[in-house]
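Q: How would the C-alpha cells look for this protein?
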Amino acid sequence: MKPELLFRREEEKYEHLKSSLPSLLAITERFGNRPKTQFFEGLEGLKKVFEDILLTGKDMTTPYLSFIGTDDMDNRVEEYITKEFAVQRAKLKIKTKAILSMDTSLYMEYYKKNHTVLIIEEPVFDLGNEIVVYGNNKIAILMYDKEEMS
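A: Here is the predicted structure in C-alpha cell form.
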C-alpha cells in the first residue's frame, strides 16, 4: 500500500473519531462520578481511614453507622481506637449508631456507653470485620486481625 493511501485512511479514521467525540462524551457524562476505591494496609492505613471518618463526621448532622462482628482485634488497633479515635470522636460530638455481634466483647462496654447500639445474638452476624458507613457516600470495610490488617 502506498504511504499516501495509508496516511489518508488513518486520517479518515481520525476525522470519524473526532466527529463522534461529542456523542461519546454525552454517554460518559450520563454515568456521573464513578466510585473510587482505596486500599490501606497495616495500622497506619487503618489510622488514615479513621482520620477520614473524623474529618468527614465533624460536618455531619446524621450519625455514622457501624456494623461490628469481630472480636479478633490486634491490640494496637484496640489501643488506637479507644485512646485516640474515640477521644477525638467525642470531642467533635460525632454520633454513631452501631450494630454489634454478641461476640464483640472488646467493644461491648465502650459501645454501650458511647453509642446507640443494637446487639444481635445470631452467629450468622459474626462478620470478622467492621463495616462503617459515613459521610454522604463513603463505606469502609475494616479488618483488625494481626495477619490481615487492612
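Helices lie at 3-30, 42-57, 75-91, 105-114.

The chain has two domains: 1-34, 42-148.

Upvote if useful.
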